[in-house]
Design goal:
The chain is α+β, with helices and mostly antiparallel strands. The chain has 21 helices and 10 strands.
């Protein structure tokens, strides 16, 4: 982290380091950056942490103590199943937001500043007691001038600045830990923090949530599943005004049995419609974000977190599901290994195939007892990660979403079996892909895209040559794994300069003493003082060498 940012966030950084130390992470705090060890020394070294708590439990407690930003980041990191250690992911899933509601006097200025005109000109009534409270904002019930009820989500004041400060510090800690603690390098903590931080910053902009809800409604086109309608004219980056949804949570005994069965079927179809057709999906469809409306529809609430699958990713998933349905581990492994973005290390294909076959046996026929498609996807992702394969985060996000929606559909209909919907969509997709008209259209689109890229090649090459000729472009060579060597050179040079200064003091003091008469008269007295300083510097230099060892 740049020094200016470090000074600006020093108080928060000290709180974070103290929390790490309090939960037994003194070794991490003292190792994160050899050049800034004085920061760790600002906190007292503890006698030891509770031996009954595992490493991953202490990580969760640290996040909870550090507040809403870190809890939210932990929840986002929990979607990296297959990339982070499984015990850590299990602990991160336990994170729950515990946020006290801010007073209306604190939130009112935000609403007034974001609305086009005074609030009273837009709302006929406004309940200042929040109906929901989160780390990023609070939700209020209000009534527009036309009498329609709306939900007004208001962002907490100052939360963006606080989140950015925490992200700066956390990213610096992750980079330092990645560089100085070899055991953590396989998990690539900086990329995990950067990815989770980018997701959190997107959630801070309520315009993204509005766009997600509108996109979902455009895809479902008034079906049994929908998102609340957004009042775009009253919404902004910090305020979201949307349709108020009255309804029951899935699993409520008040939901009629036939309605539950119909909506469970619609939800199952929505899963694969989103995965294989539209590529756009709600990433957190837990029961708290679903409502069964009085007219028998299923509303998806809270669109702050959504996922997007490209056409290539949808084809990849379709091939995976087809291999799973056929219980063909060999074909499944071949599909995964054909994805160039997944290869992050040398893969033992035989071992991978054996482990994939084990997963398929446990989830034969998408058994609802073992968790259905979502649990199957998570288990496969875990096996891929353990074998050196790194798939895009959207796949893990999707697996979590599918698992959560499956559970919500079973709450609506205990006999719900997602396998039926999976096979039906695979058959439909297969027919569409074999359609000569569709196949020809996609082929022409790919050829056109390739032709455009080929046509642009001479222009791009000429531009590159001009940049090289002008000196604007060059080759950067970065050595990896030389951090220890760099530190050793820096330490050695520092000691050499120190020794030269000591030698200069000794020579200068000797000349002054030789010129002087009386021992304490000028210039002999100055020379004696110089001897004392040189002697003190020499003792410090020897102490530093002994303390750190000759290798430093």
């Amino acid at each position: 982290m740049p020094s200016v940012q470090w000074i600006k966030n020093a108080a928060r950084a000290r709180d974070i380091l103290r929390t790490l130390v309090r939960h037994g992470f003194w070794d991490v705090a003292s190792k994160v950056d050899g050049e800034r060890r004085w920061i760790a020394r600002l906190t007292p070294e503890p006698e030891g942490s509770d031996p009954g708590r595992s490493l991953w439990v202490r990580v969760r407690l640290v996040l909870e103590d550090l507040g809403p930003t870190f809890v939210k980041l932990g929840q986002l990191a929990a979607t990296r199943e297959g990339t982070l250690p499984e015990p850590l992911v299990a602990e991160l899933r336990k994170l729950r937001e515990s946020v006290k509601p801010a007073a209306w006097q604190v939130m009112a200025p935000v609403l007034a500043a974001e609305l086009p005109g005074a609030p009273e000109t837009h709302f006929k009534g406004f309940d200042t007691e929040p109906v929901a409270c989160g780390s990023l904002g609070q939700v209020y019930r209000a009534q527009l001038e036309d009498g329609s009820a709306v939900a007004v989500k208001v962002r907490r004041p100052g939360i963006t600045r606080a989140v950015r400060a925490d992200l700066d510090i956390l990213l610096w800690l992750a980079e330092a830990a990645h560089e100085n603690i070899p055991d953590l390098r396989p998990y690539d903590l900086p990329s995990v923090v950067a990815e989770a931080g980018a997701g959190l910053l997107r959630e801070l902009d309520f315009r993204n949530e509005a766009r997600n809800a509108e996109e979902f409604n455009s895809l479902t086109r008034g079906g049994l599943v929908f998102a609340p309608r957004v009042h775009a004219a009253l919404s902004s980056e910090a305020v979201l005004v949307s349709e108020w949804i009255e309804g029951l949570a899935p699993g409520s005994s008040a939901v009629p049995e036939q309605v539950g069965k119909r909506l469970a079927k619609a939800g199952g179809e929505a899963v694969f419609q989103q995965i294989l057709v539209s590529g756009f999906f709600h990433a957190d469809p837990h029961p708290g974000n679903l409502r069964v409306t009085p007219d028998g529809r299923l509303a998806f609430l809270d669109w702050g977190l959504a996922g997007q699958l490209t056409r290539r990713m949808r084809r990849f998933l379709a091939a995976i599901f087809s291999a799973v349905d056929a219980q063909d581990a060999e074909r499944l492994v071949a599909v995964v290994l054909s994805d160039p973005s997944a290869l992050a290390a040398r893969v033992d294909a035989t071992r991978l195939e054996a482990e994939v076959a084990g997963v398929l046996r446990r989830h034969r026929d998408f058994s609802t007892v073992s968790g259905g498609v979502g649990r199957l996807m998570l288990d496969l992702l875990r096996v891929f990660g353990a074998n050196g394969l790194r798939l895009a985060r959207d796949y893990t996000l999707l697996a979590k979403a599918v698992l959560t929606l499956e559970n919500s559909c079973r709450a609506l209909d205990p006999s719900f079996d997602i396998a039926t919907h999976a096979r039906e969509f695979l058959r439909r997709l297969g027919r569409e892909r074999l359609n000569p008209v569709r196949w020809g259209r996609e082929l022409l689109r790919d050829v056109a895209a390739g032709g455009n890229a080929l046509a642009d090649a001479p222009v791009l090459l000429a531009r590159l040559l001009r940049r090289i000729e002008s000196g604007a472009a060059g080759l950067v060579v970065e050595h990896k794994g030389l951090e220890d060597f760099r530190d050793t050179i820096n330490t050695g040079v520092n000691r050499l300069v120190f020794a030269i200064i000591v030698a200069a003091l000794l020579v200068g003091s000797s000349l002054l003493v030789q010129k002087g008469g009386d021992v304490w008269a000028f210039p002999s007295g100055v020379g004696i003082v110089g001897y004392g300083i040189a002697f003190g510097f020499t003792l410090y230099l020897l102490w530093d060498i002994v303390r750190h060892g000759r290798h430093r």
